[in-house]
Design brief:
With about 250 residues, this protein is an alpha/beta fold. It has a single domain, classed as Ribonuclease Z/Hydroxyacylglutathione hydrolase-like (Metallo-beta-lactamase, Chain A, 4-Layer Sandwich), CATH 3.60.15. It is built from seven helices and 14 strands. Helix content is about 20%, strand content about 30%. The radius of gyration is 17 Å and the shape is globular. Strands 6-5-4-3-2-1-14 form a seven-stranded mixed sheet. It has a seven-stranded mixed sheet with strand order 7-8-9-10-11-12-13, covered by helices on one side. α6 runs parallel beside α7. InterPro entries: Metallo-B-lactamas, RibonucZ/Hydroxyglut_hydro. GO terms for molecular function: 3'-tRNA processing endoribonuclease activity. Keywords: Hydrolase.
Length: about 250
Amino acid sequence: MKLVLLGTSGYHPNDRRQTACLMLPELGVVFDAGTAMYRVSDYLSTDTLDVYLSHAHLDHVMGLTFMFDILSDTSLEKVIVHGETEKLKALREHLFTEMLFPVDPPFEMRPLQPKYTLADGGVLTHFPLRHPGGSVGYRIDWPDRSLAYVTDTVAAPDVDYIEHIRGADLLVHECFFDDTEPAQAELTGHSCITPVAQVAKAAEVGRLVLVHINPVLVNDSDLPLATAQKIFPKTEIGTDFMVLDF
């Protein structure tokens, strides 16, 4: 199975990264629809697309407005956007208000269900995260592997969602701050690097990939990867177009 990181920035894009969007091309599954959403058309191999939203902040949903172009370049028959009911309501009333987007978007919105069985038998579930306005994380379990996606939340060594990601072979987790801004992380509902590594260690995951990187960082070296690797050695920084085999 391949997971493609199409967008790995948080808040806004920069010259190196677009905002949050991850894709499982073999299944036609996308997590979040940030500014990297336009890249989905280059990886499509299915005739349906399911987009699972973590929440409704703009850096995770504005790519939904690109869907007409995505559809024009593909043979997609159906696109479904899944999200919490109140988040979908906010999208309809605000992002897709006629004053901002004058035509109906070319997809169906459906309230998030407790569990989904994917085309290859994988089971997708979600769990709550602490973030202003609320967010959810996702996990997919197959008989021989598992994946967890956690973004826009405050990591801590004893955070509740550890039990939801325990033993995942691959954990893709946000890391917006280094360890110098814990107060700002708490205020904005984001994570510092040491607590993220502590979460990975406590959950006994197989591999940790950091995303939702602060866009003002000039280079990846500005995020102290070595700090995380001392706690959880199998940590790496995700980049746009990175393909993760798991």
